């Protein structure tokens, strides 16, 4: 159990919690976000009131949240929200916590998409990618799929709250869909025995959203041929993947007949996205 501070001021409670959270990736930030969430205030409010005395009931509830965070539960599961593409998304244990690096996928998709395109987000989870695209392309037809009914419930709730128009489909990736101009996907891509699955936060996330067979490639093997059938001629397929999977994903796409295949690196210089185009079968001018 987390030790109770001697004083219940904001400053003392936060300092104690940050010490208790020393093994997490951002101890002080996590402590501030948890307390701000509990008080329904923002971090600026906390910073402006270091001597503010907190009720004992609030302190006890806060220490319980700190205990849970210390046990490896992601911060977003404790607060119930995560910001992505400047959108406040509700998340829970049925969905992957959206990562900042996935915004690169949205950025690249926007560079490829037309204003009125049909765009499919395969494996939408909380709806983060689809919601971001719908917020930027209000005239586009955005479809979001997931095999998990519970995840789709979260995504639908986010779309309703943000007043964004998305068509949700329960499906195994792209099954039963056709006519897409652009398909984006951040599928599970971690191998079943990868030690990363035991790291802070990740161990509490749904395995269905993380693990893709013994080599982490199973989802790509399913999606690529489905995408070739689902896409319009000259349509694009865009994946997020692991840092060491770019060539394997590119080879799957080449084998399926995709062209114009390229990989984009993230801000940490890791290969993060791979994209390819379905051949255009329209007649060429002589």
Q: What structural keywords apply?
A:
Rossmann fold; 286 residues; Helicase, Ruva Protein, domain 3; elongated; alpha/beta
Describe this structure in words.
By secondary structure, the chain is α/β, with parallel strands linked by helices. The chain folds into two domains: about 10-70, Orthogonal Bundle (Helicase, Ruva Protein, domain 3); about 95-275, Vaccinia Virus protein VP39 (Rossmann fold, 3-Layer(aba) Sandwich). Helix content is about 35%, strand content about 20%. It has helices at about 10-20, 25-40, 45-50, 55-70, 75-80, 105-110, 130-135, 150-160, 220-230, 245-255, and strands spanning about 80-85, 85-90, 120, 140-145, 165-170, 180-185, 230-240, 260-265, 270-275. The strands form two sheets. Strands 5-4-3-6-7-9-8 form a seven-stranded mixed beta sheet, sandwiched between helices. Strands 1-2 form a two-stranded antiparallel sheet. Strand 6, helix 9 (about 220-230) and strand 7 (about 230-240) form a beta-alpha-beta unit. The mean pLDDT is about 90.
Number of domains: 2
* Rg over C-alpha atoms, rounded to the nearest angstrom: 21 Å
- Rough shape? elongated
Total beta strands: 9
* C-alpha end-to-end distance: 77 Å
Counting DSSP H or I runs of 4 or more residues, the number of helices is 10
CATH level 1 name of the largest domain = Alpha Beta
Structural class: alpha/beta
Spatial ordering of strands, largest sheet: 5-4-3-6-7-9-8
- Helical percent range? 25-40%
**CATH architecture group name of the largest domain:** 3-Layer(aba) Sandwich
**CATH homologous superfamily designation of the largest domain:** Vaccinia Virus protein VP39
CATH fold category name of the largest domain: Rossmann fold
Look at the structure and give the mean pLDDT: 90
Uncertain stretches of 5 or more adjacent residues: none
């Amino acid at each position: 159990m987390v030790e109770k501070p001697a004083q219940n001021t904001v400053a003392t409670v936060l300092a104690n919690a940050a010490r208790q959270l020393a093994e997490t990736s951002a101890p002080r930030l996590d402590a501030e976000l948890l307390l701000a969430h509990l008080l329904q205030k923002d971090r600026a409010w906390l910073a402006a009131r270091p001597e503010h005395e907190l009720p004992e009931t609030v302190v006890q509830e806060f220490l319980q949240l700190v205990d849970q965070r210390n046990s490896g539960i992601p911060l977003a599961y404790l607060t119930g929200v995560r910001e992505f593409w400047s959108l406040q998304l509700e998340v829970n244990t049925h969905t992957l916590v959206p990562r900042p690096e996935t915004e690169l996928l949205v950025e690249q998709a926007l560079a490829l998409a037309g204003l009125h395109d049909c765009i499919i987000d395969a494996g939408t989870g909380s709806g983060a990618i689809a919601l971001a695209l719908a917020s930027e392309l209000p005239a586009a037809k955005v479809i979001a799929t997931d095999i998990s009914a519970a995840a789709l419930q979260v995504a639908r709730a986010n779309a309703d709250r943000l007043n964004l128009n998305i068509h949700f489909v329960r499906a195994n990736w792209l099954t039963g869909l056709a006519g897409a101009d652009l398909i984006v996907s951040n599928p599970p891509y971690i191998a079943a025995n990868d030690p990363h699955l035991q790291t802070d936060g990740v161990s509490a996330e749904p395995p269905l959203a993380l693990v893709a067979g013994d080599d982490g490639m199973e989802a790509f093997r399913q999606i690529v041929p489905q995408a070739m059938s689902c896409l319009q001629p000259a349509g694009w397929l865009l994946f997020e993947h692991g840092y060491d999977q770019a060539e394997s994903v590119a080879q799957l796409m080449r084998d399926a007949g995709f062209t114009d295949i390229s990989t984009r690196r993230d801000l940490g210089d890791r290969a993060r996205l791979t994209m390819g185009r379905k051949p255009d079968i329209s007649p060429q001018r002589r």
